[in-house]
Amino acid sequence: MPSFSDFDFSDDLLDGLDAMGFVTPTPVQEQAIPIVLGKKDLIACAQTGTGKTAAFLLPVLEMISRTPADNSINALIIVPTRELALQIDQQVEGLGYFTGVNSLPVYGGGTGMSWEQQKKALVTGVDLVIATPGRLISHLNLGYVKFDKVQHLILDEADRMLDMGFFDDLMKIIKYLPKERQTLMFSATMPPKIRKLSSSMLQNPEQISLAISKPAEGVLQVAYMVYDQHKVSLIRHLLSGKTKYPSIIVFSSTKKNVREIHRALKQKGLQVGAISSDLEQKEREEVLREFKNKKLQILVATDILSRGIDIKEISLVINYDIPMDAEDYVHRIGRTARAQSTGVAITFINEKDQQRFGKIEQLIEMEVQKVDTPEDIGKSPKYQPNRRNHGGKKYYRKKGNFKNRGPRNKR
């Protein structure tokens, strides 16, 4: 079995690993750490839950602790969301506790006081900055941020950042960095746009590709065939009395459904919290803290939590709605069965989303078991993933094209 001591880490970093409960490196860590320590550029593709964060944090922490620089920013990590920035900052605090490396999360949505705290740290210097693109550019535009001594640039969840439209922001940030630097890019998927981004940022990068777009082997997947009007009753039925699942995440595609699910489960007497973009940052952090500390058993959320939140021991994930992007299905159920553990993922499929779920099955290269809604809740739609659904409109084929003629006139 490989060991973290194989990487010639300092005793201080090994003490941090021991304190955080890290025992053996995951495959992506085993491959990436020597490359990063060798100061080479790297593009790594690995799914959620494989240990990507530690794969770049550990070697960067080691290199910073070997050659500390006063009053300067040594490493910059760019992430798509504030939640991921906070999560990585917590990892730095834990893993680097004995090394003396300090870090700063830079993200929007806070108070004027948080802005001033960020500004002060950026001016006086901090070893490692973890930032979202928009807030970082706001600081850069004011001229007091000095990136001239940055040695390491890390892009985490690079595909997500491009999906969110951050390409131009990333290009602008790059102009502030020295050309002579190490650049690391981590992504859960590898679409052509990531290749384009990597070619403009990285120099002769090493490449790692592990388990692209496949759920972890430890996830037991099942799908319920259910009409929309029965979903609330079904989720209340499934979660009532489920004490063997200490931590459960329910994903929904809309804020409206999050509120409805939260209300229904709370009425059932369950310990449940909810997170969506409607909440202020402090409220989100408080709900996450209660969930991590097991004060809440169930967390209902939009896809804001599908990536980048490191919550251990998630035993059950429920997809109340099927995500628009098949890749997001992998990220959602990747919240469970992390680090070689096991978990359960349940998906609700209505009559309109069957073709979309068929595409998910093609992506993950497996057929997910389908079960019917319990009879006392209601009937189930038949699973027909190859049947076209046009939202109730009537379509007629004419000269090789589909044309919407609307309802026929009565005669």
Helix and strand layout, with pairings?
Layout: H1 11-20, H2 27-37, E1 42-46, H3 52-66, E2 75-78, H4 82-95, E3 103-106, H5 112-124, E4 128-131, H6 133-140, E5 152-155, H7 158-163, H8 167-174, E6 182-187, H9 192-201, E7 206-210, E8 219-225, H10 231-239, E9 248-251, H11 255-267, E10 272-275, H12 281-292, E11 298-301, E12 316-319, H13 326-333, E13 343-349, H14 354-364, E14 369-372, E15 395-398, E16 401-404
Parallel strand pairs: 1-6, 1-7, 2-4, 2-5, 3-4, 5-6, 8-13, 8-14, 9-11, 9-12, 10-11, 12-13
Antiparallel strand pairs: 15-16
Helix pairs in contact: 2-3, 3-4, 6-8, 10-11, 13-14
Task: Explain how this protein is built.
With 411 residues, the chain is of the alpha/beta class. The protein folds into 2 domains: 207 residues, 3-Layer(aba) Sandwich (Rossmann fold); 154 residues, P-loop containing nucleotide triphosphate hydrolases (Rossmann fold), CATH 3.40.50.300. Helices cover 36% and strands 18% of the residues. The protein is built from 14 helices and 16 strands. Strands 3-4-2-5-6-1-7 form a 7-stranded parallel β-sheet, sandwiched between helices. Strands 10-11-9-12-13-8-14 form a 7-stranded parallel β-sheet, sandwiched between helices. α6 crosses α8 and α10 packs across α11. It is globular.
